[in-house]
């Protein structure tokens, strides 16, 4: 709307600063029209502003290169992403720019304990708790979760359909727990979307506040390392450890390239095999345990034994 207003009024580009801001808005609007996700647009906006705040003139590619190269606080991955974002911006506005090469430094992502994820869920507001439980059970990207509509849920059969994917991911279907169904039903369903008009920026800010409060309250600084994407890494890691089936994990995550899935399955070396154990005497009890994340071990004296990693 701002871009359209400026174009119609003819005020875009009145000064260099106004011109740069206008070009950023125009570029972000272009990304939206191209169908890029809300999170991607937020990230591009964030990095362009970071470059400006560090003294870069976005209309001068040499200035941008110097700022990226001389920033000692930025890691190689940050510099690579800043360069990639500006390259897209420059390409759209036909600004000649040859991006510098920065090596990708892959690190093993942080995988929290399940009880730490559960602590965040139990300590969150009603809507945030439902969102986090959803991420835990499905491994959805946060953007995919925020796009969910009520029509995507089959409460009668506890099934969730994911058709609005991100990063060219595959559509998929999930069986969700009674716990999650109950949490979702308590949400206000006046909106078309399950989580209403929540934006990535707003929901992330709210989550950061919850995380900080609980880290202090529970005296566990590890909670500060948990992001929305951490839930996805945790889900992939646990599924692979349980099944040792890379194709199964690939299907859950919606990946089209198995190389991407492999990154998620080399995350944790379980040095200790510590489990919660439980038993079931009939099909209904066994069903509830499986929905709670327990895996079947064996049957002894007509009693089914289950376990779940601590």
**Any idea what the radius of gyration is?**
23 Å
Number of strands: 6
Helix and strand run: HHHHHHHHEEEHHHHHEHEE
**Shape, per Cα inertia axes:** elongated
Give the terminus-to-terminus CA distance: 50 Å
Mean pLDDT: 87
Beta-strand proportion: 5-15%
Strand order of the largest sheet: 1-2-3
- Uncertain regions spanning at least 5 consecutive residues: 6-14
Helix content: 40-55%
Give the structural class. mainly alpha
Give the biggest sheet.
3 strands, antiparallel
How many H/I helical runs? 14
Question: What does this molecule look like?
Answer:
With 310 residues, the chain is mainly α. The chain contains 14 helices and six strands. A three-stranded antiparallel sheet has the order 1-2-3, with no helix packed on it. A three-stranded antiparallel sheet has the order 4-6-5, covered by helices on one side. The termini are far apart. Residues 6-14 have low confidence and may be disordered.
């Amino acid at each position: 709307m701002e871009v359209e207003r400026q174009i119609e009024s003819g005020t875009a580009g009145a000064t260099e600063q106004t011109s740069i801001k206008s070009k950023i808005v125009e570029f972000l609007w272009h990304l939206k029209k191209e169908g890029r996700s809300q999170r991607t647009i937020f990230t591009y906006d964030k990095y362009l502003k970071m470059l400006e705040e560090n003294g870069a003139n976005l209309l001068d590619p040499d200035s941008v290169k110097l700022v990226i190269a001389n920033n000692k606080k930025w890691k190689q991955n940050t510099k690579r992403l800043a360069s990639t974002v500006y390259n897209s911006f420059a390409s759209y506005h036909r600004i000649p720019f040859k991006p510098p090469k920065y090596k990708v430094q892959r690190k093993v992502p942080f995988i929290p304990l399940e009880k730490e994820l559960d602590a965040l869920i139990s300590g969150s507001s009603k809507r945030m708790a439902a969102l986090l439980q959803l991420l835990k059970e499905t491994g959805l990207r946060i953007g995919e979760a925020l796009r969910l509509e009520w029509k995507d849920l089959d409460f009668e059969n506890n099934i969730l359909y994911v058709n609005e994917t991100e990063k060219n991911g595959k559509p998929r279907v999930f069986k969700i727990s009674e716990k999650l169904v109950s949490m979702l039903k308590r949400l206000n369903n006046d909106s078309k979307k399950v989580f209403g008009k929540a934006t990535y920026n707003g929901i992330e800010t709210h989550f950061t506040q919850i995380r900080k409060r609980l880290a202090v309250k529970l005296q566990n600084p590890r909670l500060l390392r948990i992001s929305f994407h951490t839930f996805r890494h945790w889900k992939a890691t646990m599924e692979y450890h349980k099944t040792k089936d890379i194709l199964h994990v690939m299907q859950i995550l919606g990946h089209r390239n198995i190389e991407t899935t492999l990154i998620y399955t080399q995350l944790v070396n379980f040095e200790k095999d510590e489990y919660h154990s439980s038993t079931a005497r009939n099909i209904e009890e066994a069903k509830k345990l499986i929905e709670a994340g327990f895996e079947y071990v064996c049957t002894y004296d007509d009693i089914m034994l289950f376990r779940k990693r601590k």
